[in-house]
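Tutorial handout. Part one gives the primary structure; part two gives the three-dimensional structure as tokens.
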Amino acid sequence: MMDINGQQHVIAAFDFDGTLTTSDTLIAFICYTHGQRRLLLGFLRHAHWLLMMKLGFYSNGKAKEKVFSYFYKGTTHKQFAQWGREFADIAETMLNSHMVDILKQHLAKDHSVCVVTAGIDEWVRPICERLGVNIILATRIVVSPSGTLTGRFLTPNCYGNQKVARLLEAFPQRQSYKLYAYGDSRGDNELLAFADMGFHIEHHKCFPISTRKACKSS
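Part two.
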């Protein structure tokens, strides 16, 4: 895949939580839709599953699905999607300006930019579209025939190897493009290793994974 100048096309893949944002939007979204008290009660109720996940005895995806189901099972998809659109105003205040600048540099160069995230599509997509990104590879949820959320995930949690799998679904023929990838957590390690140029986000700045020198642009 070549651009109009005969150069190899560039794909830039960004994680969302902790990369394009400065903190986790799952917690912020639940707080927005249910309030801080219900958020704390819900996480206390699932503390044993979350601890097992942290210790490596329970999968990240299953623990997240349990939490998601607790808060949103039975909610109409119409309401959930509306919350996601409204939440974009809050998510905008959580953006990492340094990483947004890098994203915009990629867009200005006509690179194909995508967000690859374990976040749920309905609250990730609205803020990403505000940034000019229309390719969102996020965790998708099951909606029942009656239009309510079942509490289950339609796709595997987009974490670890799933990030690579989802990227290849969107952009096959890996040898035909140069891949930049940006991420901040262990769930991004496989994607960063898969990239031609991988950048780890730390203290809201990005570092090439082979060095500790901060990058100013891509």
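Part three, for discussion. The mean pLDDT is 91. Residues 77-93 form the longest helix (17 residues).
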